[in-house]
Write a structure and sequence with these properties.
The structure is a single chain. The chain has 4 helices and 10 strands, in the order H-H-H-E-E-E-E-E-E-E-E-E-E-H. It has 236 residues and is α+β, with helices and mostly antiparallel strands. It folds into 2 domains: 101 residues; 109 residues, Cupredoxins -  blue copper proteins (Immunoglobulin-like), CATH 2.60.40. The strands form 2 sheets. The protein has a 5-stranded mixed beta sheet, with no helix packed on it. A 5-stranded mixed beta sheet has the order 4-10-9-6-7, covered by helices on one side. Strand 1 and strand 2 form a beta hairpin. The longest helix is centred in the N-terminal third of the chain and has 34 residues. The radius of gyration is 26 Å and the shape is elongated. The protein binds copper (II) ion. The site of copper (II) ion (CU) has 7 residues, from loops.
């Protein structure tokens, strides 16, 4: 291959990569992560996106170059020369995807294991889903009831969930995790909020007519403010 062609291929590849990167980065597709688990999940997301952009750049460069340089006249229906027995090429196109997929698998497995592990001294909260609202109970604070999920920042939280009727699903976009809440079983979800703020709790399993309204809030508070609230009598 001529040197000029390689330079042209690289230029097209870099351009394609730049356009894909702009499309990935500029719209702000994801909410700001507000938990350690979400931070790790975002890392996996961007790691995989980076690999995808790399592969896309190569494919786009080769495709655009072929269309540009090897365009056939309209009446030319003949095939191009076949590629056979190019061992180097075959090893490369087997080894590179294997490496990339293995890297994604290893990174995902590490993040999954870390996100699934509860931290030291977790705060346990019972979450109850029903048509069409969420309620929360704090066993460590005399079963204090609340219809808003209040959490202390930077503490490991274990949500133990159940449903009174049909399947619901607990989702806080800023926490990046979703958990189906199924009647009769008690799935758990581990969260370590690391940003003070108020975020939506959304039911993300179609659960009946009021599904779209099945929303609540999570308020991540400073530990002292949380303690003060938790020790007060009464709900909310
Ligand atoms: Cu629901």
């Amino acid at each position: 291959m001529r040197r000029g062609s390689i330079v042209q291929l690289i230029v097209i590849g870099v351009l394609a990569g730049a356009i894909a990167s702009a499309f990935a980065l500029i719209p702000g597709w994801l909410p700001e992560p507000a938990s350690r688990e979400a931070g790790r999940i975002h890392f996996v997301f961007w790691f995989v996106t980076g690999i995808c952009i790399f592969v896309f750049s190569i494919v786009a460069a080769v495709t655009a170059f072929a269309v540009w340089k090897f365009r056939a006249p309209p009446d030319d229906d003949s095939d191009g020369p076949p590629i056979h027995g190019n061992t180097t090429l075959e090893i490369a196109w087997t080894a590179v995807p294997t490496l990339l997929v293995t890297a994604i698998a290893v990174v995902s497995a590490i993040v999954l294991a870390k996100d699934d592990a509860q931290g030291a001294n977790p705060l346990r909260i019972e979450v109850t889903a029903q048509q069409f609202f969420w309620s929360y109970s704090y066993p460590g604070f005399g079963n204090k009831q609340s219809d808003v999920l209040r959490l202390p920042v930077n503490r490991s939280i274990v949500l133990r969930m159940t449903s009174k009727d049909v399947i619901h699903s607990f989702w806080v976009p800023e926490f990046s995790q979703k958990q189906d809440v199924v009647p009769g079983i008690h799935p758990t979800l581990h969260i370590t909020p690391d940003k003070v703020g108020t975020y939506p709790v959304i039911c993300t399993e179609l659960c009946g007519l009021g599904h779209a309204l099945m929303r609540s809030r999570v308020i991540v508070m400073q530990p002292a403010a949380f303690q003060k609230w938790a020790n007060q009598k009464g709900g909310a």
